[in-house]
Every structure is written in C-alpha cells, then in structure tokens.
Amino acid sequence: MTLDKESARASSLLRGKVVQRIARHREQEVMIEFDDGSRLYVDSGAKLEMSITLSG
Fold it and tell me: Phi and psi dihedrals of 22, rounded to 5?
C-alpha cells in the first residue's frame, strides 16, 4: 500500500471520531483513544515530537 493510500484509509476510518484521551508511555510512542474505543498507535524508532495547532 502506498503512503497516499494508507493515509486516505486512516482518514476514512477515523473521520468523525472524537478523541477521548492521548497517552504517551514512551518518547517513541503516541496512543490516541477515541470515544468509541478505537485506538490509533504511532510508534517510531526515534523520539516523537507532538505539535498541536488550533484554528480560529
């Protein structure tokens, strides 16, 4: 699967979901849990930085 197809699929699966919590158990990992129990895990061999940009 190409990166474009993978990102489109992830966007489709997560569209409309509401984030319930975000957890970081390690510097290389982020877990986002949604109100319906779905979870998105991001894991890397390197330290991950998080950035949040608010609109408005």
Answer: -125, 135
